[in-house]
Amino acid sequence: MKMTFGKYLPLVAAVTLLASCGNNKASAANKKDESANKQMVYKKEVKQKGKAIKGGELKYALVSDTPIKGIFNPYLSVVASDSVVTSFFSEDLFTVDKTKHFTNDGFAKFDVDEKNKVVTVKFPKDVKWSDGKPMSIDDYIFTHEFIANKDYPGVRYPAFVGDIEGAEEYHAGKADHISGIEKVDDQTVKLHYKKLTPAINIPGGQLVSGCLPKHVYKDIPMSKVMESDAVRKNPVSFGPFKIQSVIPGESVTLVANEHYYLGRPNLDKVTVDVVSTKNIVSEMKNGNYDIASMPADSYDSYKDAKNFTVLTAPELSYNYIAFKFGKWNPEKKVNESNEHSKMNNKNLRQAMAYAIDTDKIAKKFYNGTRAQANSLIPPVFDEHDDKVKPYQYNPKKAKQLLDEAGYKDKDGDGFREDPKGKKLVINYLTPAGGENDQSIALALTQWWEKIGLKVKLVSGRPVEFNSYIDKLRGDDPQIDVYAGAWALSGDPDPSDIYGRHAELNVARFTSEENDKLLADISSEKAFDQKYRKEALQKWQEYAAEEAFVVPTLYRTGITAVNNRIKYFDVNVDSLQDAGSLNNLAFVSKDRVK
Question: In the predicted model, is pLDDT for residue 366 greater than 60?
Answer without folding.
Answer: yes
